[in-house]
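Q: Structure tokens for this one, please.
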Amino acid sequence: MTHSLLPVIMAGGSGTRLWPLSRALYPKQFLILTGNQSLFQQAHLRLQSLAAADIAVTQPCVVGNEEHRFLVLDQLREVKGEAAPLLLEPVGRNTAPAVTLAALQAVADGADPILVVTPADQTVTDEAAYTAAVQAAVRAAAEGDIVILGITPDRPETGFGYIRTGEANALGARCVQAFVEKPDAQTAQAYVADGGYFWNSGMFVMKASRWLAAVGHFRPDILAATQAAFAVRTSDAAFVRPGKDEFKAVPSESVDYAVMEQCPAHPEAGFVVRMVPLNAGWSDLGAWDAVWQVTPHDAQGNAAHGDALFQGTTNTLIHASSRLVAAVGLDNIVVVETPDAVLVADRSRSQEVKQIVAALDKQSRPEGSLHRRVHRPWGWYDSIDAGERFQVKRIMVKPKASLSLQMHHHRAEHWIVVSGTAEVTVGDEVKLISENQSVYIPLGNVHRLTNPGAIPLEIIEVQSGSYLGEDDIVRFQDNYGRTN
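A: Here is the predicted structure, written as tokens:
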């Protein structure tokens, strides 16, 4: 018998504990922290490797934030992948509603595939062990069980929830007796010594209909509200958008609290949860300390990404994005450099970085949500200099892409082409400008920038005026649904 498998990638989340590299509008799942692909791309490729003689893998269903939709599409294209479909959450409502959306989409055409649900922000080092464990979980889920992947603990970790398990069945899936909250150090040591406790990975496998039945039994309010939002969904291209007002009414709850922990606590409901052990070098990269653990070290325990020098330094992580970072006489420290922010932290306290992000948000500072280089569906812009009444940006426009037809009330712009060819609209005039040529956009003029070529277009934009904020844009036409 062939099992139809639908990968579900949970691509929401903000990754606040990996600030300043992770920002709200470019969170950790889209960053390259290990290897040469983002965590999201790694998750996609791992899931595609699950195919076997008895397992047919379809294109993934991605559940993500409306703000990240073009990041998802771009990163899938880079690894020659597709999303079918991309479910866009208008607001965050935690993981239980997100999985319910995916299950409703999965059964919409009458099918009932096995869902393999995985966060987009994890990494594993042993791909073969991962594939074998998830394939075993798929076969166990085909019997009607809800199956979770449990991480074989290699240390007494206090930052993870644990799963207490019993005997294994013929497929190697252990019966889950209880889910246990994050323990103190002494309790964690006892769990590791016991041998029957595993870390909760957040990855689980079950038939779509089984999930809907379970969430309907334990949290009928979540199921009913999500069904109401899904019933009024709209679709365009690869995007599926649940009703915004209806989705706002969905209770916010995690998969664990809504369903997983309820199943073993209420066996009379008939929902059996089993666990397949995963011993594959897993990490959720939840903080900079976890990144240090999975990054290759030198003889002194130092790990580096980018241009870094160590002198008399031990057990330290340097992540340099744009310049040389040198460390002298440090131990157990994290240094993360980006063009607009630098983090220096005790590695053992890296979980507290999220409090810095909360402070930035409270002060309405942009460093909490945006990088200096801001990605847009047409490309990106990098704010390289600014002062009173002026701002300078470097802009890249993808081949065949176009910015919106727009105007500004408070600023004029001067564009200089660095590479490629630009098609420029100013008022009723449309013209081509090439490398080392420029064009002036007077204040109040309707204008547009397009890349008609096959290579990226790069320009330098000099803005001048009384107000230079991004909200001084009136859009008349836009290829990405952003018109005023």
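A few notes: The chain has three domains: 3-278, 288-361, 373-477. DSSP finds twelve helices and 29 strands in the chain.
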